[in-house]
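Lab notebook, bench 4. The sequencing result for the construct came back, and we need a structural model before the next group meeting so we can plan mutations. Quick request posted to the team channel:

Model the 3D structure of this chain.
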Amino acid sequence: MESLSQYSKDVREELKLSLQEVYNRTDIDVTLLGYKMFDLESRRYIGNKAKLTPWIMNIINEHTGGFESFFDVFAGTASVSKAAIPYAKRIIMNDFLSSNNIIYQAFFGSGTYDMNKLHSIIEYYNNINPDTIEDNYFSDNFGDKFFDYKNSKLIGHIREDVERRKVALTHKEYAILLTSLIYSIDKIANTVGHFDAYIKKNILYHPLSIQLIRPLDPQCVEIFREDSNILAENITADVAYIDPPYNSRQYSRFYHIYENLVTWEKPELFGVAMKPKAQNMSAYCTSSAPVAFRDLISKLNVKYIVVSYNNTYESKSGSSKNKITLEQIKSILEERGTTKIYDCDHRYFNAGKTNFAKHKELLFITEVGQ
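Done. Here's the predicted structure in token form:
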């Protein structure tokens, strides 16, 4: 760690606090201590709305005149849920992926955790020599494919160690460690941002360095991992925000390595991309998308329905083509109430070759009729 002499007297006094005390202080940047930490937005994810959240929340707030409860039906990266926290007293977030759920538990979940303990564990991991580690499930399946072989051994070793430590960890600590692992390996993955395939060329070795995530710890968040169309029947809120996976890209397949790491059931894997048997497949990625969407909209018990949509229906890429059209979205929403459409030019994260430069992000807002 650098000398504290470079900082002002007041800062030096603050830096004498324990890491846990500093971390809990809102007026101190923990990076001054030399610990880099991941924020929620620090990972690659298809369809990430992080850069759009100011626009989305401003429109929702202006259109509704304010709201107290916010239901993020397909939360994904949770960037929209995070953006809604200053506006609402209650946030309900849902996603069917186990990896997204553990990330929500780490950033938003309730429960106690000791940052000093977690930092010590991370320091231990970062001092492991991968040459001393035996082969394991992760390196056997993913080594020299999605990750360099040495890093693959280290990732598998760390995942096993987290599981061994589970009895001595709180649920929040367990979630933070797994999430920190996910965010850290995202930085060195031999991919274009997902795990549907890996880059077939020699992998440049970048030593894996584990960094902790920076939990947000709001007191207003409820976390679910359920089928959205079923959960919708049991939630009452002012606003429902919907951003389903409209195209054929099944997120459970695109992020199968994260799912594998979190569940740690070590299934048999198949194909070049080393995927498990298909599970958690979304109807919104199939020709049944319009039917599933109409069913969801009919079940929502909310005052306002907000739908994000990007106009990729005519995309040249088959996997990028939306399974439901703008006209279908509008028609289904108008069955529930008066609907307005807002648009924004936005070039979002795209892992493929499709040019989305002229595509727009659309926001439908429906005021549900009585």
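The first helix runs from residue 9 to 15.
Will bring this to the meeting.
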